[in-house]
Design brief:
Immunoglobulin-like, Glucose Permease (Domain IIA), alpha+beta, 3 domains
Amino acid sequence: MKKFILIIILIASGVLAYYFYIDTNSPVINWNVEHGAYINKGLTINIADDQGLSEICYSLSGAGCSAEERCLRDFTSASFDLAVDPENCVTNNEPFKMKINVAATDTSLLPNQTVGSIELTYDNQPPSLVTLRGTRYLKQGGSGVVLYEVGEDPNDTGIVLGDLLFRSFRFSQNKYLSLYAHPYNVAADEFKPRIFAVDNAGNLRKIRPGSTTASHSYKSEVIKLTDDFLETVKNKIMANSQKTPLNVFKEINDTVRQQNNQTIVELCQTSENRKLWDGVFLRNQGATRANFAENRTYVYNSSIVSQQVHTGIDIAGVSKTPIVAANHGKVVFAGAIGIYGNVVVLDHGYGLHSLYGHLSQINVQVGDRVEKGEVMATSGESGLAFGDHLHFEIRVNGVPVNPIEWIDRSWVKNKIEVFLPNNADTE
């Protein structure tokens, strides 16, 4: 009986020794980057084993590195971060391909080893960037264009202004075009647009587009709200709300307006990589009832309750006036957008869009191609409108700009179209 118990103890001890000292799991190498990727700084490789590491050997080859193997031992944990610095291999400013080999051995009684390698491209130089031509003078609320060249195929490029991004459009090998704007709510001394290019390794370069700008003051007005008006607004837009007419108005004018604007910004991210428009934009018939960038202060019982800016121009003609496309384009939206009522949005290419709001009837649908002067809809007073009129906007990459520029034949020709790619520029 004692011999049997002894045998059982020996077997159990052997099993425990096998699991604790004879590890069957090999070390795991986590490269923290994909094979074939571009990098612009040192790489940290994590090697881990469930029992422990006894030795890690590695080599780095490429450019000035000769694949000399180096080994590390005496680890105090089961996980180790191996730092590899390709900067030691740099011999000039050119990117170079590199290969890293790693062999990791664990502390098992019967050692397990994992061998792996990865090939990468090391590049720590930002791409070259140079402007070719473009609009030299903008004004607050206005538009411009710049053409520029990147020294290599960028991973991302365009124009940044604060948190705004103006997209770029490739028109030839390494050559790009960006329409951009000086937003009406950005002071001239804060208008600092930068062309940027990021390469595949993440290196970033920024330059100025070469334009200057100036402040431009827009009209301000105070609108006194009456109880009858507030009641009318509530009944038209949010008749079932339990809030007071004043609180309904504030929600519509502030929150809903902001949400509607974001919807339009998102719609304007769809744009063709070519110029669809031709020359000056048409102005629909009627009298101007409100101008671009009017700063409106709303007062109720002598207190300011809301402040907003008008992002287009209002044109009023006779009731149910036919509304025409301001220029050639493609319909990217036809439907209702909150305070704008029934809306048509046209893409004119290169990030340029026009918007037609408060319509009573829409005769086009998404995907339609329209010609300059083609009837698309009829005017109305849908949405937050009181009186039949057209709300007309021009947007550059979703940013509202002064439509007056785009309906000025001389401005369109001399500030925009003269700089656009011609047959000699394009591929």
